[in-house]
Amino acid sequence: MTRRNYFLSLTALAVATSPFAQAVTTPPPHNLTDAQAQSIIQKFAEKETEFAKARDQYTFRQISKIIEYNDEGKPGGRYEIVTDITFNDQGKRLENVVFAPVSTLSRIQMTQQDQQDLRTTMPFVLTSNEVNEYYIRYLGWQKVDEIGCYVFAVKPKVLDKSEKRYFEGEVWVDDHDLQIVKTYGRAVGYLKHKGQEFPKFETYRENIDGKYWFPTYTYADDVLNFPTGPQRIKVIVQYKDYKKFGSDVNIKFGDNPVDVQPSTPPNQANPPKSPQ
Q1: Does residue 177 contact residue 47 with C-beta atoms inside 8 Å?
Q2: Among candidate residues 147, 119, 111, the one with its CA nearest the CA of residue 203
Q3: Distance of CA 112 to the CA centre of its chain
Q4: What's the burial of 58, exposed, middle or buried (CB within 10 Å: 0-12/13-18/19+)?
Q5: ∠ CA(236), CA(214), CA(55), 5° rounding?
């Protein structure tokens, strides 16, 4: 994003402290040795790999909104795009924009990195192929919404010049299914134009089919410190209407193939209500 003639370069400050950024309480039964933590990391990366393959077999709708606030703290300009992830008759995955009104943002502008983050970084997935690109440190165990979770700090080892986007923050891993259920952090990457920075966000997942935790909601509310003054923005992303494409495809999960069908209603880890 840019503001007037400036790039969106700001120390992203959370307006309200995230409950997931608070200190993690570690009950004695969940203290892990380094070897145990590494084993869990390997296992949840394998589950994330299976999850990524499964999600590629689903259609869904992504609704993305960015709202800027004026100096009086009232909502002003707005960016919105609605995209359907679908398949054609040959089974090729497509992204179809179904709603994209003219942006009314006047204090900031979207950058290529912002667009990429909406598509891939905010619904963060950490697969076996990518796990070695990150430093991962066990923080402790925390119960979130009746779900026992291992909590890990995640940070990319190198921001290479390929302009690949990475996630930096914390991830909550279900201690039963060993899948990521929540993330809190920011998108990072090598930048040709210095001075850019990106808001912190939370992404929540739901158990859609009894096996996989799919992202369903991302939320950010940050004050971005431009040279010309602070600028508050809000980011809201919803991932809705997951539906399995085709009826005769089985996806292997662990040792057993499962027939993936959305459950009704889905289990949800109580994301906050979407602001208007």
Answers
A1: yes
A2: 119
A3: 17
A4: buried
A5: 115
Quick one: three-class SS letters along the chain?
CEECCEECCCCCEECCCCHHHCCCCCCHHHCCCHHHHHHHHHHHHHHHHHHHHHHCCEEEEEEEEEEEECCCCCEEEEEEEEEEEEECCCCCEEEEEEECCCCCCCCCECCHHHHHHHHHHCCCCCCCCCHHHEEEEEEEEEEECCEEEEEEEEEECCCCCCCCCEEEEEEEEECCCCCEEEEEEEEECCCCCCCCCCCCEEEEEEECCCCCEEEEEEEEEEEEEECCEEEEEEEEEEEEEEEECCCCCCEEECCEEECCCCCCCCEECCCCCCCC
Residues in Cβ contact with 39 at an 8 Å cutoff, skipping those fewer than 6 apart: none
Using one digit for the tens of pLDDT, what is the confidence trace for 59-103? 999 999 999 999 999 999 999 999 999 999 888 999 999 999 999
Residue 151: which residues within 8 A CB-CB, separation 6 or more? 24, 138, 139, 140, 141, 142, 170, 171, 172, 173
Predicted TM-score (pTM) above 0.85:
no
Amino acid letter, 176: H
pLDDT more than 90, % of the chain: 62
